[in-house]
Amino acid sequence: MADPGPVVPRRRIAEELRRLRGEAGRTLEEVAEALLISTSKLSRLENAQGRPQLRDIRDLVRFYGIEGTQVASRLERWTKASQSQGWWTDYSGQISDELGAHVAYETEASVARVYTIPAIPVLLQTADYARAYYRSTEPWRTSDDIEQLVELRMKRQRALRQREGQPPLTLVAVTHESSIRQLVGSPEIMRTQLDHLIESSTAPNIELRIFPFSTQPLFTSTCMYAYFEFSEDIDRDVVHIETHAGIRHIERAKAVEKYREYHDALYRSSLTPEETRALIRTVRNEQFS
Predict the structure, then answer these.
(1) What is the pLDDT of residue 244?
(2) What is the secondary structure of 153-167 as a DSSP string?
(3) Residues 48/78, Cβ–Cβ less than 8 Å
(4) Which parts of the sequence belong to the HTH cro/C1-type domain (predicted)?
(5) Who wins on pLDDT, 243 or 27?
(6) What is the pLDDT of residues 2-20, one digit of tens each?
(7) Which pLDDT score, from 0 to 100, does residue 246 have?
(8) Peptide bond into 204 cis (omega under 30)
(9) Which terminus of the chain has fewer CB atoms gathered within 10 Å of its CB, N or C?
(10) Which residues, 6 or more positions from 18, have their beta carbon under 8 angstroms from its beta carbon?
(11) Rounded CA gap, 76 and 237, in Å?
(12) pLDDT digits (tens, 9 = 90+) for 34-47
């Protein structure tokens, strides 16, 4: 994977370096020439690509004349934080760079607002459901490959229960009604999965809503995506749109803002959490009994 480490520290460094260069009135070429580094290397640092090296950050701190300041201290702290390997790199042979970046954002975000169709949200799937879904939709994978991918999904779900140094992830999930009616694996697997949805959706940091068949389609109701929010003002929200062709990353502020509006519209048009659980019970008893 190209950028396996934590993504949020890199984004904070990039944001700060762009700000410092803008305030200094310098071009990329001027700063790169003064530090005897390539313009492409500086550009990568300012775009959160690759791992920042402490030596380069200290050179930039000296160049901008901010030694001993809080900004310099933050830059050094973020650089050290960016050096660690993400736990998900153990699965780098099985997942794409895009999915690796998605898991990195998911691991460090404060809130994930997701919409799924026609699958149950990944963070609320049981292992048997995930295993059956992979077998059905990606039949070329070996049993060992699938087991590793299922293990990855189960580890991702730990963020909903506890995380080191930050509160559990808050999940606001909207899923299309088709996801709870689509047979995956067997009726028994579906019964267990729907029971799990009912139980897990009562957690204080999880809100699950169903976008029902009875509601008119909305603009973003035909594709899956995740909107990641962060607790620090310096951290910009991001959107990941998932298709068969891969994950599309959206960071431009106006586009991200639009997707928040789209998700809010889906949220408002969906059943309440109580109505959602009632519908899940009905489907479980009538369709998968």
Answers:
(1) 80
(2) HHHHGGGGT-BTTBP
(3) no
(4) 17-71
(5) 27
(6) 455 678 888 888 889 999 9
(7) 84
(8) no
(9) C
(10) 46
(11) 23
(12) 999 999 999 989 98
| Cα–Cα distance for residue pair 151/91, rounded to 1 Å | 9
The torsion defined by the Cα of 38, 43, 49 and 55, in degrees rounded to 10, comes to 50
Residues 6+ apart with CB under 8 A from 48: 7, 10, 11, 13, 14
Most confidently predicted of 87-101, 232-246, 261-275: 261-275
Map tokens 């998968």 to a residue: 288
Structural domains in the chain plus CATH codes: 7-82 (1.10.260.40), 87-287 (3.30.870)
Max Cα-Cα span within the chain: 71
Residues 6 or more apart from 171 whose CB is under 8 A from it?
111, 112, 114, 121, 123, 124, 160, 205, 206, 207
Q: At which residue do the structure tokens 């490959």 appear?
A: 145
Q: Residue 103 in contact with residue 5, Cβ under 8 Å?
A: no
For residue 200, the model assigns a pLDDT of: 98
Residue pLDDT, tens place only, 81-97: 888 778 888 888 888 88
Query: How far from chain centre, in Å, is Cα 126?
Result: 19
Question: Taking residues 130-151, what's their average pLDDT?
Answer: 96
Distance CA 121, CA 108 (A): 18
Q: What is the DSSP string of 223-264?
A: SEEEEEE-SSTTS--EEEEEETTEEEEE--HHHHHHHHHHHH
What is the chain's alpha carbon radius of gyration, rounded to the nearest angstrom?
21
Residue corresponding to tokens 């586009």 = 255
Q: Is 272 exposed, middle or buried (0-12, 13-18, 19+ CB in 10 A)?
A: exposed
Say yes or no to pLDDT of 50 above 50. Answer: yes
What is the chain's length?
289
